[in-house]
Design a protein that fits this description.
The chain is mainly β. It has no helices and 13 strands.
Amino acid sequence: VTASDPDGDALSVTVDDARFEVVGGQLKLRDGISLDHEAEPSVTVVVTAVDAGGLTASTLVTISVTNVNEVPAVPVLDGTSVAEGVAGAVVGLVTVADPDAGDTVELTVDDARFEIVDGVLKLRDGVSLDFETEATVDLVITATDAGGLSAALAVTLAVGDDGVTPVVPVLTGRTVAENAAGAVI
């Protein structure tokens, strides 16, 4: 910010928006303050120069807020379990927000047995899980925006136990020879 006084008086320069200040002849945002293009793509301020006698001169300044790509929010999953023995079982809806209006966000999952289709996390067709061999599954769901920025959600899914009782074992023999160490029955 430059200003001069015809009388050679010293000038003080102020700005009418409390988010800004003039320091060392430069208009700047105050420490800890930032602007968001999506909320406010431009800001108009009045910069005023005041001389020692109290006379003022002001100018209206419009500042463009440059848009930068911002990281999408961490995805949210509304389910925490998956059914046992059900091929293609649905876990739940995955939602994500991106601060950049209009950005597309791609959702991926790190376990090849799962997929996200139209925002729904599910087992792939033909794939099912077994509680007895895997009671929980750890996944990472990643949201990646068009600019390549990403956010991830780590989640542990509980595999639902279908309560099926295992088959009763069948023993084909019922006798063992006397004094036969290690004999097969």
